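Attaching the record inline, Q. Sequence:
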Amino acid sequence: MLRLAGAALAQDGSLIENVDHAGIISRWDQKSLVRGQGLFQIACAPCHGVNGVKTINPQARPFAVEKFQNGGDPYSMFKTITRGFKNMPSQTWMTPEQRYEVIQYIRETFVKKLNPTQYTTVDQSYLDSLPRFDPGLARSAAASGVRQCDFGPVLESQLGTNFSDALTFRLKDDVTLSYDLHRMRLAGAWRGGFLDLSQTGHYQQRGEGQPQPKGTLLPGLQQWYWTYGGRFDYPTDEVPPRGPLPSGWMKYLGHYVYNRQAILSFTVEGRHVLECPDAEETNNLLIISHTLKIGPGTNSMRLCVGQSNLAVAGVLGMTRGLTWETDDQQRLVLIIPPDEKSRVVRICCASKSGEAALERFNQYLGERKSEPVVDPETLTHGGARLWPLEIKERGKLGEQPGAYALDTIPVPFDNPYGAWLRTSALAFFPGGRAVVTTYGGDVWIVSGLDRSLENATWSRFASGLYEPFGALVVDGLIYVTCRNGIVRLHDLNHDGEADFYETFYADTDVSTFFHSFNFDLQGDHHGHLYYVKAGEYTDYKLPGAVLEVAPDGSQAQVYCTGFRVPNGMGMLPDGRLTVSDNQGDWMPASKINIVGRGGFYGYVQNLTGGGAFGDHWAPDGGRIDARKVKPPATFDQPIIWMPQEFDNSSSAQVWAGDRRFGPLSGRLLHSSYGKGWLYYLMMQEVGSISQAAIVALPFQFDAGLMRAKVNPADGQVYATGLSGWQGPPDGKDGCLQRLRYTGKPIKLLDDVKVRPDGLSLRFNFALDPTSALNPASYHLEQWNYLWSSSYGSDQYSSEHPGQKGHDQLTISSIKLSRHNREVFLVVPGLRPVNQVEIRLALTAADGTFWKELAYLTINAIPNK
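Structure, as predicted:
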């Protein structure tokens, strides 16, 4: 992982990385020049052109012809590349060494020969003039373990505990603005840093803290909000406490990314607005500006831009018909009349700090009246790539000598963007490219997933998302489940990066508790999308529910309820959903459910669970008297329970329907976050009741598995996951691995069925008759779990309820099929039970010894 090597003041007083400028420049050679050429082709040529004379973007500088506006010496060029300039975004995705290699290439190829007046000679006196590198500061920063992560121009997260869905902008001059997306108002404006993320999942394996402002609040610039229903102080009785306002008042549509800028898109009472914030310090005065494109409409709009006693404001652009007023709350209000056409305005605000500051502010407005206001819509068609460097990782094929091999596609933990790749979800394009999300908010595209994996390539597609834990590709577009709903990503200029982060569905209940995740994303044949919300440790009004989202994203409804930490779903070929859950309060053990509309699956959020919040915790933030919450008498049973040692933290399922996957195809596979294992299920329908047996596959993945998907290009099963709360010992931060069928044979327990008088076990290989008919080859025991408010459950006798322990099952006789591939174990007194453990130790017909462990849940026994 890249580390932030401290920081230092540049000669102009601005903050810049603690870099050994002189040392890097003095090491320039032919190899660094060649590397610089490659980087130039990726990062610079798309706008500046390849010959230094003719540019592709008319706003770009032709290096061989024009004067450098910020200085042509290496250090001045370094500052320009690092900070960006006008429409050129900051290029901090490159390391300092890489930035200087690009500079070397530009200087030696274009400037020295074709533009010599801009060529600065680098001698010892020049090197001595450069900012000093502080090795002690670098060692201190490296020891602190702080990563320098490029989140892009904006990051979506909560802000403290007051704002559950905020979009935070990193602006110029070290200014940060954060918007409350549920109210389309400022959540905060400060200077001196971005967000303090040190105690969150961006920097901690189990980050339980909240993002906080990192800097000093800007006096007088904290207010920016609209009227709804004609009022600033609108009634909130019918407004969700943790969700967006009614769409008739305000609807957040998403944000565009253009270079290092972001543009908000939303409606206010039906009128569409594009908003692009900015910051500028000039003449010792800090100006916060908001450039708005306001669509036509028959209603007037009122916007509070600050407190009249604390701030000053002015407007530029299409100002005709705009009026100002100050209300009885000292709000400084801009009134926007009805319009038949769109108007573009730039509203400038500054702190009210004396007559001198007011004079400088008026001077600022006067100087810019003649300048055209940039229409935000021109920034909504895609800009330059922010992360153009693709990372090649040579995969490693598994050495498993059997029918299946576990291949590894290395995750680029050390990447130019400082991104922490805790891989969280997985999807595929039809052609085989993978979509991989990260807990920290990235989406990466992984290509080159062929048989050899020699040229696997990672490319960063999007960043700044709000804890994405689910992904799906629909009609060529990437859909991502985030904590605030479902985001649909658009690459508008087809350059391999997302330019529009569309809010496809806005979750109506977004909690500020760190554990309030939205898990997975599944789609049915009718276009509906499904994800599942966490239950425990949330303040949701309805904790632990599957949401069914309409195909157009316009609305959602609760599909079923009763989940604690349902970290994963699946979809059967017939359209039925599967959802897993984890042991904890009201959850006796980990399990997998086939869920139905209106079902209840066991988790009850109330005060008796012994949670960390004691008597103060209740659903809906305490609005419900949890002492009056009564659990139902029973709940819908899972198809399989699993003991803690077998799966201590369940995640997603995947239907392995491709025949190219070999003997395991046509089955439901299950993944474990706690163990880092994959399992296969053997399912049975008894009338309308489902049940299953499960077997673990002998593969240890590199991290706790989150999601598994079939790649349509090769039919194999890929999985991704991360470490944190659980995970295998020494688990990696993330993983992307492939379970591949080699074509070799494998001996499997092929099916388990409950019969009226016992169990039928089918194998995909012939058994030795002597071994198959020997009762000592089989060991069966069973037990139940206790459903209660306690954390998990002991294992209880089914024959003696309330007594801890297992019951041994007796096999009275065994019948072997004609082809020696199926045995029927006659088990007297077999009854429905939560858990049956099946241990097998058999000899195959070819003389090889074979053993297996399976677990079975019996919900129903067929009639004779």
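The longest helix spans residues 96-114. Residues 1-16, 141-145, 607-617 have pLDDT under 50 and may be disordered.

More tomorrow.
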